[in-house]
Fold this sequence. Notes:
four-stranded mixed beta sheet, 4 strands, alpha+beta, 46% strand, elongated, single chain
Amino acid sequence: MLYLLLLVNSIENHKIIDYLGIVTGVSLTVYGIFSSNNLPKAVDKAKEIAFKKLINNANNLKANAIVGIKIDVEILDQFYKVCVSVTGTAVKVMV
């Protein structure tokens, strides 16, 4: 099981035993004229994809948790795109 914690640098009742590195997940999703996505739907889709990439990158480092997660959402109106970037620190915790 992989724990995800937003803007928290610890996990209650668990000791972080190793910091494995910064991990990211980025997604760019189209909305509007040439897409069936409206803006809220596009943001949700982009977040889901970005989190999957974040988790995959943490798993590649053999992490079992991610702490200090930060989410950045940027709407690129002139291109009808949503960019979501998710960043955190991959860690190994005692379970």
